[in-house]
Amino acid sequence: MKNRILIFLFLLAGLSAFAQNGYQIKVTLKPFTSGYLYLGHHFGSKQYIIDSAAINSNSEVTFSGKEKLFGGVYMVIFPRKNGWFEMLVDKQQHFSVVADTTDLPGKTQFTGSSDNQLFQVYQKMAQEKGKSVFLLQKQLKENPANPDSVRIKSEITRLNDEMQQYREQFIKAHPTHLLSAIFHVLQEVKVPEASKHPGGKYDSAFAYQYYKQHYWDGISFTDERLVRTPVFEPRLQRYFSNVLMQHPDTLSKAANKILDAAISNKEMFKFILSSLTEKYINPTYMGQDAVFVNLFERYYAPGKADYWLNDKYRKAVFDRAYSLMANLIGEKAADMNMVDSSGKPAPLYSIKAPYIVICFWDPTCGHCQTEVPQLDSLFQNKWKKKGVQMYGVMTDGGKKAWLKFIRDHQLKGWTHVYQLPAVKDAEYAAGKPGYKQLYDVYQTPVLYLLDKDKNIIAKKLNHNQLDDLLQLKMK
Q1: Smallest Cα–Cα separation from 113: which of 25, 33, 237?
Q2: What percentage of residues in the chain have a pLDDT greater than 90?
Q3: Which residues contact 210 (CB under 8 A, 6 or more apart)?
């Protein structure tokens, strides 16, 4: 009998352990009594739904699954997907919550989740102080000459300082809590006061370097929970867009340092690498495609991202990298085996000039039909007398239309060229990249500026931007 009891207790212990696997979140959300509630989570700047459940007549649903959820900030989304309330999911994944849409988070109650009870306290305080700050800021905005403005600004500062102090105290009391990780991301760098700068007076260079060096203090690049919060990606984007000098080498070094720190955590590494890839694969500023090429050569090409790449994404990344590697700013431009309008060889490297403007264009392209004559006007009136040479490459449109456009618009003084079909076929048969890949020409017109040694100075500018750059260079 005793052995049977022991076996029974052992089985109960096993069932209890099994019951805690996966996740089970019971939600009561008034006033809804029909339809579906949805379980979602933040993922950087986006939100994703991962589960749904039908609401019963008591406003109840239960979300459950056999696998544990990744830690992060999750959302219970309303039936019409027009609102939600947030909660934390971390180690505690079996709990219940009762809420009412008429008072969030005021009437929200969690059972079995101390993480969310702490989160709820913070939410209520943040809501109250946030409302007070908003009303004070509104007073200043409506009446900038308010005689009480000094007191109002002081009150705003006090409320913000109280929030900051709360976060700092919370971090000390709960160092491993998900909310502490979020608070670290929300913290701003405190630059030392001017008296502590070199020489005892404010030094902008010192302040900038201090801010940059301490920007990531307390933030772990192996804490994958941060991926599923709305706060980490904005800080990452701000660092690369506003904190760092916008030079490709500086950006690449910073990206490598962060990714190398994150590589031991698959989720965080994947998130940061994909975010930076999206940012620099088609960058806002000329020359920053070198950052993407750096990411490709350091992480994609060696296979460090293979565990999450699908075929479509992999092809897009590899194709784009191969299109950019040969035409980075500062690199020597590839020669082009072209012939002129009479069929005589006219390769790029036969052109001798202090500056060469390459124009890839199509006579049937509407944008080209506007841009090319304007480009020619700048060449004839400004650039030609300075020794600048035009190398115009017909990409498509047919020889007849090409020659007609040249005649009709009197594009004189250019070296007009195109590639013979036989040459194109031979390059393809030999496995060599064509000029469109070498120069990343997948739309027209595309302009490049080369120096006398055929080094790429600039690319993909419009004619006005190119003129500004040339005037600066020729000074």
Answers
A1: 25
A2: 89
A3: 189, 191, 192
The closest alpha carbon to 170, from 218, 105, 133, 232, belongs to: 218
With contact defined as beta carbons under 8 Å apart, do 225 and 261 qualify? no
**Whether pTM exceeds 0.85:** yes
Q: Are 321 and 293 in contact (CB under 8 A)?
A: yes
Give the dihedral sign, CA 182/183/184/186.
positive
CA distance 85 to 105: 8
Q: How far apart are CA 336 and CA 345, in angstroms?
A: 10
The CA–CA distances, whole Å, from 9 to 3, 15, 16, 343, 435 equal: 10, 10, 10, 92, 75
Crossing angle of helices 178-186 and 114-142, rounded to 10°: 20
Q: Under CATH, which architecture does the 21-112 domain have?
A: Sandwich (2.60)
Superfamily per CATH, domain 339-474: Glutaredoxin (3.40.30.10)
Q: How far apart, in Å, are the Cα atoms of 71 and each of 131, 240, 267, 410?
A: 29, 26, 11, 66
Q: What is the pLDDT of residue 145?
A: 82
Which residue ranges make up each domain of the chain? 21-112, 120-182, 194-324, 339-474
C-alpha dist (Å) from residue 259 to 207, 246, 372: 26, 18, 43
